[in-house]
């Protein structure tokens, strides 16, 4: 369930395509600072959209991970002090 969802995401590629698309709309920027501000605004917009959204329930994910990879027994633990 989680492996497939983590493996098949392409958010970075979609974000790069969105930056390129908006760059094509504007066509030319007066200087590098204006281009940087535009990309920064786009990244801030995407951050706000994703800040409240969680694809995975973290507690459920940790339970799934613990069931898949159980912790080794602590019978042979020795103190180093």
TrEMBL record:
The record's annotation in Pfam families points to: Transposase_mut
Q: Which residues form a coiled coil?
A: none
A single GO molecular function term of this UniProt record? DNA binding
Q: Organism, per UniProt? A: mine drainage metagenome
Matching entries from InterPro entries are given as: Transposase_mutator
Q: What is this protein called?
A: Transposase, mutator type
Say yes or no: keyword DNA-binding present. Answer: yes
The protein's UniProt keywords, in alphabetical order, are: DNA recombination, DNA-binding, Transposition
Question: Is DNA-binding among the key words of this record?
Answer: yes
Tell me a GO biological process for this protein: DNA transposition
């Amino acid at each position: 369930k989680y492996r497939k969802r983590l493996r098949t995401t392409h958010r970075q590629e979609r974000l790069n395509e969105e930056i390129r698309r908006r760059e094509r709309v504007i066509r030319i920027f007066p200087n590098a600072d204006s281009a940087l501000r535009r990309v920064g605004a786009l990244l801030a917009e995407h951050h706000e959209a994703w800040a409240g959204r969680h694809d995975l329930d973290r507690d459920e994910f940790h339970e799934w991970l613990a069931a898949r990879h159980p912790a080794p027994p602590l019978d042979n633990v020795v103190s180093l002090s």
